[in-house]
Write a structure and sequence with these properties.
This protein has about 260 residues and is mostly helical. It contains seven helices and two strands; from the N terminus they run H-E-E-H-H-H-H-H-H. The chain has a two-stranded antiparallel sheet with strand order 1-2. Helix 3 packs across helix 4 and helix 4 crosses helix 5.
Length: about 260
């Protein structure tokens, strides 16, 4: 009896196991298929959320953060390939921009240094004779305009007076081989040139017989060219100007810098 029961069990168990085993096999295959589908979905989800290729985060020109690329290296769609290429180009441009930015900053520093060097040179270097004479005339015109006694002269006459004084200043510093500072030049002009200028202005009124001749005299003092003067006008002008020059030279004999 026991032997029969054991035989039945031995027969039934394999059959049940076979049945269960077949069901388990199919269930396992079904689970594997579902797992693969889940992996695909997860892969898609990860592709859209997390980058498979990590790039360094960069900072834009305006300080905004530029996020790393989120495209994988393989199985890219054509659109993704284009975008990935553009992103790579953008990173390259950012690197080049940094290089040029540093180069520009270096050039700006060089320009600032050169401008400072030029400024120092202009401060300590003497003026050219043309610039110095122009400064004398400008200073003298300002002095004359502020003097009540100069109101009897026209603007054209004051131009001629200032130009005549500039010529005498040029001859004086050239003959003495002087290099004057700004303050020394201004002191010399203020001390010696107004009196000479008034003398020249009075002489112009005597020598010139018309506004046209006054303009010719002004051009003569400005350019030191008497070709436009008639012989009579040149003679008259020399006659009235020489006493003015004689008085100026006598006073300049006492010049001794600094004042």
């Amino acid at each position: 009896m026991k032997t029969r029961k054991l035989l039945v069990v031995l027969i039934i168990v394999p059959i049940v196991l076979a049945i269960l085993g077949g069901g388990g096999y199919f269930a396992y295959n079904e689970m594997q298929g579902q797992h693969q589908e889940n992996l695909k979905d997860l892969e898609k989800f990860g592709f859209t959320v997390l980058p498979s290729n990590v790039h360094t985060e960069t900072t834009g020109e305006l300080g905004t953060k530029q996020l790393p690329a989120t495209f994988g290296q393989d199985k890219l769609t054509p659109t993704q390939k284009v975008i990935k290429g553009l992103m790579a180009d953008n990173e390259k441009l950012l690197e080049e921009q940094e290089v040029y930015k540093k180069r520009i900053e270096g050039l700006k520093a060089e320009i600032a240094a050169l401008e400072e060097y030029k400024k120092l040179n202009e401060h300590f270097a003497p003026l050219t004779i043309t610039e110095e004479v122009a400064a004398v005339e400008k200073q003298l015109k300002t002095l004359l305009i502020d003097m009540p006694d100069a109101r009897r002269f026209s603007n054209l006459q004051i131009e001629a007076m200032s130009a005549a004084a500039g010529n005498e200043y040029k001859k004086f510093i050239g003959g003495k081989r002087l290099i004057l500072s700004d303050s020394e030049r201004e002191a010399l002009v203020k001390t010696y040139m107004p009196e000479y200028s008034f003398c020249v202005g009075d002489g112009i009124e005597i020598a010139a017989n018309s506004p046209r001749e006054e303009r010719l005299i002004t051009q003569f003092f400005r350019k030191q060219d008497n070709s436009n003067l008639t012989s009579e006008l040149k003679t008259d002008l020399d006659t009235v100007i020489k006493p003015c020059q004689t008085a100026l030279y006598a006073r300049l004999d006492d010049y001794d810098k600094p004042f």
